[in-house]
Amino acid sequence: MAIDVANSSHEAPRDFAIIFALGAPGAGKGTLCTHLARVHNLAHFSVGDILRTYVKANRHTVLADRIQQKLDWQGFLTFEDISPFLCKAIKNAMEGEENVKGIILDGFPRCLEQAKSFEEWHFQVELPLRSRKPVVVLSINVTKENAKPRYLARARDSNDSEEKFERRFAEYERESPLVEELYRTRVLIDIDANGTKEENINELTRKLGESSLNTSCGCAANGVC
Question: Could you say which architecture CATH assigns to the domain 17-222?
Answer without folding.
Answer: 3-Layer(aba) Sandwich (3.40)
